[in-house]
Amino acid sequence: MRSCIGGCLLTMLLATSARAGVIRYDLRYTFVYQQTSPTPPTTPGVYVWSSRVDLEESGDASLASVTTPGNIGAFLFPVGESSFLASRSFASEASMNWSFPAGAYTITIAGGTLGGIAIGLNRPAATFYPQAIPTFTPASLSAIAAAPVTIPWPLSFNSFSLPSGANSGQTTLRITAESGTEIFSAPLVAGASGLLIPANTMLPATNYRLRLAFSAQQANPSTGFPGATAIVAFDRETIYAFTTKAACKADLTGDTIVDDADFVIFSDAYQILLCADASMPSGCPADLVPDGLVDDTDFVVFSQAYEALVCP
Predict the structure, then answer these.
(1) What is the value of pTM for the model shown?
(2) Where are the domains of the chain?
(3) Which residue among 79, 80, 197, 216 has its CA within the 20 to 30 Å range from the CA of 183?
(4) What pLDDT, in 10s, does the model give residues 37-61?
(5) How far is CA 63 from CA 37, 75, 77, 201, 271, in A?
(6) Which residues have C-beta within 8 Å of that of residue 173, sequence separation ≥ 6?
């Protein structure tokens, strides 16, 4: 696929008022690490190049592409309702830079209410990756191993400073399921070193991945898409795979202990008996042996947990 992806549309520019539908577009180079212990990772496992276009409305464009300095084109595929993304993985930084080198790129959109628009975006020869490698602290990893999902998780990690060549930066923490589906995302300022994951963000006894990214960017107002931001980013991302703690079903208050507060909730449900009763709390959490009833079989399970006090 040659430069016609971008070049053939270069002359089909719209009036300035119509181009406000583009929010941002970027080129991004990422070193990806795996953290498997409290020891900070040191060597990337994979190198990822990507390009993304974010639009105001889903109908603003139906096609998007990027053309490299070597006159090679790549289509961006729809993600979500109003974004397009292309991504390639490599075994080395050298192979990533060979395929997507420094120089002038052309970002093109077409097929929607904005019509056909193409604009250049230059990747500088000098890279400016953050010096720090994202790393979760030992305290965070201990919390992940011990904390139930029913309480907030305080996560802490190192921070980074903007390197020379960057005028903008961002720390991002995401949680994804094994399928890759994102279930939580928090963009933070570049110097951030922690945040609180809300209770019940995840399911118990389920595999997830924490993804901590440091992004150093040249972010500037676009000269071709008025109102948009043009970004060239050099990132480092660390992934930590984990499994959430199994549920402590008798802990009806979600505070990691089974005590009198849980007993009050259980006894009220025991008096109601039927999970289908309109007065039963939603989800019938006291039905510890799921059979549609809160009865003596559930009481046996609850009493054992009550005697143990602390959730396993």
Answers:
(1) 0.80
(2) 4-243, 260-308
(3) 216
(4) 999 999 999 999 999 999 999 889 9
(5) 42, 8, 8, 34, 61
(6) 155, 157, 184, 185, 186, 188, 195, 210, 211, 212, 213
